[in-house]
Write a structure and sequence with these properties.
The chain is an all-alpha fold. It contains 4 helices and no strands.
């Protein structure tokens, strides 16, 4: 997503680029809504409903000033920008907005903010381990 939005291409192709980016986001959205693993660099271990969840996590965790509501609003603004219809100028403007919203959402999740509501996990959820269970010898 970040690469697609960082290099939107020439303005005459804004409509096509917006459709491609919307499709890519739609796939990511569907996967995360269905419970697929989140990217490794997103810190989403704690329960967003628990205000104490980030208390001992240190200065680099806890989502900064990001709340569940603020992250969900950013998600909604990104989704809305990607659904823009119209001509080249409207789509080019929508790509700029989508890039800004994606950067905000991605950086918030990298800082430990909770997942937006559509992607939220049950409160008992933890990141799956990368170590596979090995059979007993």
């Amino acid at each position: 997503m970040g690469r697609m939005l960082a290099r939107p291409g020439l303005t005459p192709y804004a409509v096509r680029r917006l459709r491609y980016t919307d499709t890519a986001f739609g796939i990511l959205d569907a996967l995360l809504r269905s419970g697929a693993p989140v990217p490794e660099y997103w810190i989403v271990e704690a329960d967003p409903e628990d205000p104490e969840a980030y208390a001992d996590a240190g200065p680099d965790a806890g989502g900064g000033n990001h709340t569940l509501d603020s992250v969900t609003c950013t998600y909604d603004a990104l989704s809305e920008a990607l659904r823009e219809t119209g001509g080249v100028a409207a789509c080019a403007a929508a790509l700029r907005v989508a890039r800004e919203e994606w950067e905000c959402l991605d950086s918030a999740l990298c800082e430990g903010a909770p997942l937006p509501e559509p992607w939220a996990r049950p409160s008992a959820w933890t990141r799956p381990s990368r170590v596979m269970d090995r059979p007993m010898p």
